[in-house]
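User: Just a sanity check before I run the rest of the batch. Below are the structure tokens for the first item. I only need the designed sequence back.
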């Protein structure tokens, strides 16, 4: 089959960047990586890309394919093009990391974030003479995160990292869950405290991109949500994210819907005057366009506050959702 490629090129020596286009013949069963290697071997020896296992194991061939991070060795041409030989596949390096050359990025940012979460077990006290005994269900829950091959696809497409390079980012947070939720680890509370600070678990906007692009089903966003639950259960609630969750839930339980007037002071803290002043112009704009109904000015739960009809049903939904939380397993030795 004919394969058309449009590949982003970056020449670090001359600081030049642009696109190269190639049209080659490949067998129908080819992957994008096969096609790129074919280009490098027979068409253009200057094309730089990274790869090793060619089996979706080593994580080295991540790149953006039609504007979505993927493993090139796992991307079947026929699937990417939908069988349309006129479809020109756009191939670009991962984003959120500096480009070294063509499709190769500097992954230092990725690994520095992994190091930030202490990615190793830290048992409390001496390790047992014999093996730990860990309940099966505890390890099954962790197998998702253990599947991570450090490919960087989730970091490339993370929408928060795009605007805030301090964000710990999805792969490292999934790794943090792997150790915080491991019943053999003795520093779960400290880990959760650190992860609850600025740039940690509460900075994720739940855009779901990391879940969509992860080739190994790690689903980092889901792990981040689990870390949030663990932090809340551990009583680590003196931060904007936890306060936001609490005022959100209280607003629903008390009135059946979000009380926009109290969301901001409830989240940043009633006495956080500097932050409230920063947000004041936005609040005034919302007031002007009717997004802050003054009828909601009575705090949720206070006498006279808004209540929608059928509140018992709303509260039942909240109660049932709370019952769905999984119990954590414990370790013995
Ligand atoms: S869900 Fe969160 S961590 Fe995942 S890509 Fe979106 S912002 Fe980043
Ligand atoms: S979580 Fe998934 S996408 Fe992110 S580095 Fe690991 S395997 Fe790659
Ligand atoms: S070459 Fe190893 S994951 Fe693609």
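Assistant: Here's the designed sequence for the first item:
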């Amino acid at each position: 089959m004919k394969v058309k490629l449009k590949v982003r090129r970056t020449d670090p020596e001359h600081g030049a960047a642009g696109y190269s286009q190639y049209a080659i013949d490949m067998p129908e069963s080819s992957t994008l990586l096969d096609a790129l290697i074919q280009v490098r071997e027979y068409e253009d020896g200057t094309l730089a890309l990274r790869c090793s296992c060619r089996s979706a194991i080593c994580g080295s061939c991540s790149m953006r394919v039609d504007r979505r991070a993927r493993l090139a060795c796992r991307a079947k041409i026929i699937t990417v093009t939908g069988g349309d030989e006129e479809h020109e596949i756009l191939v670009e390096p991962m984003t959120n990391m500096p480009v070294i050359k063509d499709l190769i990025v500097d992954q230092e940012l990725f690994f520095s974030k992994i190091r930030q979460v202490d990615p190793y077990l830290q048992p409390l006290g001496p390790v047992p003479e014999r093996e730990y005994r860990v309940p099966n269900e505890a390890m099954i829950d962790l197998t998702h995160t253990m599947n991570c091959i450090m490919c960087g696809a989730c970091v490339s497409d993370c929408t928060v990292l795009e605007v805030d390079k301090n964000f710990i980012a999805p792969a490292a947070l999934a790794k943090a869950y792997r150790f915080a939720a491991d019943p053999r680890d003795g520093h779960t509370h400290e880990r959760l405290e650190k992860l609850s600070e600025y740039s940690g678990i509460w900075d994720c906007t739940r855009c779901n991109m990391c879940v969509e692009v992860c080739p190994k089903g790690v689903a980092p966003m889901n792990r981040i949500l689990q870390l949030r639950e663990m932090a809340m259960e551990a009583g680590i609630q003196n931060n904007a994210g936890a306060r936001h969750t609490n005022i959100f839930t209280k607003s629903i339980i008390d009135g059946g819907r979000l009380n926009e007037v109290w969301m901001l002071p409830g989240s940043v803290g009633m006495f956080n005057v500097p932050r409230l002043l920063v947000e004041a112009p936005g609040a005034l704009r919302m007031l002007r366009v009717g997004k802050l109904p003054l009828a909601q000015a009575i705090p949720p739960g206070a006498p006279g506050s808004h209540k929608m009809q059928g509140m018992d049903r709303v509260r039942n939904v909240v109660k049932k959702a709370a019952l769905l939380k999984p119990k954590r397993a414990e370790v013995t030795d």
